[in-house]
Amino acid sequence: MPASRSSRRADMAAQPTCFHEADPRLALWRRAGVEGLGTFALVLAATGSGIAAARVFAAQPGMILPVTAVAIAAALVGLIVALGSVSGGHYNPLITLLQWLGRERSGVCTIAYVAAQLVGGTLGGAAAAALWGGPNGSTGGLGWHGVGGELVASAGLMLVVFGCMRSGRTDTGPFAVGAWLVSDIIATPTAAYANPAVVFGALVTNGPLHLATGSAVPYLLGEALGALVAFGLIHTFFRAGSAA
């Protein structure tokens, strides 16, 4: 008989793994609050570093993307290491939703996490715009031409996240995700937003990461499709609930 959702979550809690909180009995408002705070800090660092790089390298625009990629990855690694034991360190609704689809997280927790992440991301983008000011300096994304880029970027990121999660190597996850993200940002035409919370923040920020409203839906669609592709691959190649 298949394991129940509650028993599978208990198994995941008993086996230390990346991107799961150390103590799932901790009050939900605390765990969701950390997800909101971490997402706020991540999007603030991502959008703020983009604005800073655009100003510093105004005469060398080719430097903006790699500098921003390193800044975003470094911020994410630091935030996962610092706060991940409380909430799991997702800072990305795609991770939370795939855990829910995999019966590793309850529906109530998923709703709380995703809401906190989206609010945190929006506030992070707005904070960067308020701190730096000035015009957005961006074309606002690729519109529907960005669906494929976000699909590939999100699928790759989720493969790394859930591959680390299944590997049982709890200390490697933040660094593997950060390393992949540098490549993901540089290699994809959309610069790998790969996170609905970042899209929400990009709508209200300035600088290279700013998105026009016409790009938001295509990017979110690509991210959702990419996450589902990764979900299928992970469950094909990894035995559920076990280390590699």
TrEMBL record:
GO terms for biological process: one-carbon compound transport. The chain crosses the membrane at residues 37-58, 64-86, 107-132, 144-165, 177-204, 216-238. Its main location: membrane. GO terms for cellular component: cytoplasm; endomembrane system; membrane. It is found in: Endomembrane system. The keyword Protein biosynthesis does not apply. InterPro entries: Aquaporin-like, Aquaporin_transptr, MIP. Keywords: Membrane, Repeat, Transmembrane, Transmembrane helix, Transport. It is a multi-pass membrane protein. SUPFAM superfamilies: Aquaporin-like (SSF81338). GO terms for molecular function: water channel activity. Belongs to the MIP/aquaporin (TC 1.A.8) family. This is MIP family protein.
